[in-house]
Recover the amino acids of this structure.
């Protein structure tokens, strides 16, 4: 029951929103779809849920002997980019409406509704009109509507937006629980600290292209292997520092301390002689990188590559 995306493309007049994208999402995982504003995440999600059609390439999903070219409604729980609930109706009426749409029985509805409202500290608001809730609390109700019918696939477009840190943590717990219940979650988000807590695998998009794709643990490990912290006994000579910067991605942390991030084609063997020529090294170690830092670096490198391509 994997979702397999092959060579997918989406163009809008002059814009290429999704460019020859291939990846898969495995059952039961939390898959994070990342990328700067305009990277193509929503365009991709809209094709995956069947709201728009690809210009070329394919989306394949097999379930119970049936083949689909997008995730069908009966398997899907979706939190769209543009939220849509009924502000005048009560929380209960909103939840009941979406549960009924998905064929949830009354007895199951009450039990699930009580459970999730308690999880989100909203039990006492059951009969209040939705519009009387704060924006963040309305967002939590929208999240509940997306999963009350226990779909196999859950797609959440920016579930953390507008939430305070406490509620962000509640959503992290919520997502971990969906995974525990066997749902497959595709999550589009800008909060890397939250993604780092949750995701099994990630796909980072930039300008419609895949920039980073794979198991989060492998990505973090490989970034750590490529990031080196060096401390020298004496303050660094500025001329040597500038020479190093011509070839490597270097950050001067203190007068005697540098952090160097190796690019794909660069090796430690090449770097070491240059470091030794700068001065006497007193500390040398790999440095863990946050997903936030890895993201910034990968996008900057990809943008530089695309700029080079256009100026050649
Ligand atoms: N209906 C449309 N018509 C024309 N261009 C569009 C349309 N929808 C998206 N685009 C363009 O396609 C590109 C990708 O947009 P998309 O909304 O998919 O990005 P995103 O990664 O979801 O961004 P964000 O994080 O800001 O939501 C952007 O350049 C956007 O302007």
């Amino acid at each position: 029951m994997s979702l397999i995306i092959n060579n997918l493309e989406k163009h809008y007049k002059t814009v290429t929103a999704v460019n020859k994208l291939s990846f898969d999402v495995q059952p039961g995982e939390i898959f994070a779809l990342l990328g700067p504003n305009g990277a193509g995440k929503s365009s991709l999600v809209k094709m995956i849920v069947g709201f728009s059609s690809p210009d070329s390439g394919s989306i394949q999903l097999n379930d119970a002997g049936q083949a689909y070219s997008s995730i069908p409604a009966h398997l899907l729980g979706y939190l769209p980019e543009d939220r849509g609930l009924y502000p005048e109706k009560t929380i209960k009426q909103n939840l009941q409406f979406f549960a009924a749409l998905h064929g949830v029985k009354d007895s199951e509805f009450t039990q699930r509704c009580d459970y999730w409202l308690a999880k989100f500290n909203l039990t006492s608001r059951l009969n209040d009109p939705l519009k009387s809730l704060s924006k963040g609390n309305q967002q939590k109700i929208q999240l509940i509507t997306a999963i009350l019918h226990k779909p196999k696939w859950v797609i959440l477009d920016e579930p953390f937006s507008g939430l305070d840190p406490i509620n962000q943590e509640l959503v992290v717990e919520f997502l971990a629980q969906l995974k525990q219940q066997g749902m497959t979650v595709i999550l589009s988000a800008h909060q890397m600290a939250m993604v780092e807590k949750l995701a099994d695998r990630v796909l980072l998009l930039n300008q419609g292209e895949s920039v980073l794709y794979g198991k989060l643990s492998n990505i973090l490990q490989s970034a750590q292997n490529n990031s080196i912290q060096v401390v020298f006994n004496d303050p660094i000579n500025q001329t040597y520092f500038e020479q190093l910067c011509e070839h490597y991605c270097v950050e001067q942390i203190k007068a005697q301390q540098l952090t160097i991030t190796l690019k794909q084609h660069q090796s430690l063997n090449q770097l070491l002689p240059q470091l030794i020529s700068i001065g006497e090294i007193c500390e040398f170690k790999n440095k863990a990188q946050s997903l936030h830092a890895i993201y910034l670096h990968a996008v900057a490198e990809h943008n530089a590559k695309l700029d080079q391509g256009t100026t050649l």
Notes: Residues 3-207 form a domain with the Rossmann fold fold (CATH 3.40.50.300). The mean pLDDT is 92.
